[in-house]
Amino acid sequence: MTPNVELEDWRVSGISRTYPSYRRHWQISNESWLAGKHTDDEAEGLWRIRDKLYDLSDFAQRHIGGAFWIERTKGTDITEPFESHHIEQHAERLLSKFEVRTAAKPRNYKFTLEPNGFYMTLKRRVRSKLQTLNYKPSKKTELLHTGILLSLFSLSWASTVCDSLALRALAGLALCWLATSTHNYFHQRDNWRMYCFNLTLMNFSCWRISHALSHHGYPNSLHDLEMSLFEPFLCWVPSRRYASKPQRIISVLISPVIFTLLSLVQFTERLVYSLCKSNIMYWHDLLGFTLPAFLYFSTSVSLSAALISWIIILCFGSFLFGFIGVTAAHHDPRIYHDGDAMRDNYDWGLYQLDTIIDRGDIKWSDLLVLTHFGEHALHHMFPTLDHGVLKLLYPELQQTLREFKCELREINHWAHIKGHNQQLLRTKANRIPPGGKKFN
User: Fold this and answer.
1) 223 contacts 20 by C-beta, under 8 angstroms
2) Can you spell out the DSSP letters for 149-210?
3) Burial class (CB in 10 A: 0-12, 13-18, 19+), 225
4) pTM attached to this predicted model
């Protein structure tokens, strides 16, 4: 293979026809990712779904999920988010009212969503199953989320009054669990619970882009913003082109520091961007400061003591959130990452399975599933469904897996931790496509 061919292969993602434009620039952010999609997606300033273009401008304010999803995706291809966020057929019936024309060029992404393919078959079965369910699991999820929220403030108050590091660590755990459980809600239509994510100093609106739109649509690919944002400090792409072996060894050693500073760094980056370029801050960014304000006004400690206590809690919570997040399901040498061999079938649902190994050790607990990104494969394919409902859909999933001769892989958290570090160190791509070798 000539060097030029090797370089060309390196600069094209396995899931798309072109190299992501946003990766050609040094500063990677939500804004640059969206700008890159405007260039790459051939949506002609409209909204692209499959090979047709739609004008949803007048519909944004009437969108039952909230205007955010429509307004922020203008000029992009929203095929995968549209399909995964709308299980019922009502949205599909509405589309014809907003159709403008057929797109001039083929889609940039290679994914298929054939009517009789894996994902659409599973989706039909899930749609039918949902019609038979009551949504009591959602009520349980709401109670768990409320309990975690109250625990955060209670433990934060007690740790500040008692000046206890152990209690601050527990408060940090509560903050982490609040963020991971709130993740259940910012995928859904606008609701008050999604604002709880901002107590981490991160912002749910930004995560709707980097996580719900980018990561969920294109996990473990060069289009996955959640991978790109960590580079060059953490690199999961299995190629020396992106990170050398020494860099990867260093990344394993410094990853705890990166997790600890995640919240503070994300807030600082958005603040600097807003001051230097254009404002990307929201009014609800102020919610991130309600916890230190509560500690100051509800205790007799000084302002500096309240702030120090809050920062310690924030760092504990940030570390746990980062650690749980990156070891939840996606990073292991046996999981597909961009550059690895792909299966011949580009069905979007099968791709989700290829980029995930589920946590099999937490399925017994609704609390652990909610706070540790459990039921991950089903969540990726049906992100708007409450986590408490996902466990009821396994009969439909297993039936579809059997028909398409594929499997849902599961390991425990310790195996995920080990696999994550192995993936950080991996520089060679897998040459056997998913499904080509039995998982052990």
Assistant:
1) yes
2) HHHHHHHHHHHHHHT-HHHHHHHHHHHHHHHHHHHHHHTSSS-GGGGGGGGGSS-HHHHIII
3) buried
4) 0.93
